[in-house]
Amino acid sequence: MAEPDVRQRAEDGTKIADVTISGLSVQYDSSRAETLALSDVELRVLPSEFICLIGGPSGCGKTTLLNVVAGFVPPTAGEVSIRGNPVQSRAVERGMVFQEYALFPWRNAWRNVASAWRPSVCPGTSCASGLTSISGS
Ligand SMILES: Nc1ncnc2c1ncn2[C@@H]1O[C@H](COP(=O)(O)OP(=O)(O)O)[C@@H](O)[C@H]1O
Ligand SMILES: [Mg+2]
Fold it and tell me: Labelling 96: which of 9, 71, 80, 134 has CA 20 to 30 A away?
């Protein structure tokens, strides 16, 4: 029988969430308006859970929530953590597929991916070797 993944169990046997969102609020302030995009959001995503955020009208905060998890937008209050580590900035463990057109059309697919590669995020690997290991080719 396979060994259980110890990362997924706390000492008392309860499952540790992969993503924990607690008391999350985001307010955008501009010279013209203050917009409370998220207010006191609570969410736990357990290991192996697959969730879709499809509910709510345009402007209810779906993209803002994903942007906070990705580390693009800082919380005004509350916290997002990944396996117990607070999200403080973007990281290679979290990918984002944008709803807007977000490619460089003058580059091919490989060079679009390579444009995001920085040695500082994966020390010791070159762009070519890193991308080759991801794509398997
Ligand atoms: N960068 C921003 N600056 C100011 N207001 C914003 C910004 N991004 C989103 N908003 C506002 O925050 C609210 C939530 O937006 P958003 O998260 O994009 O919602 P959804 O993805 O559900 O359509 C909207 O009222 C939107 O106008
Ligand atoms: Mg959106």
Answer: 9
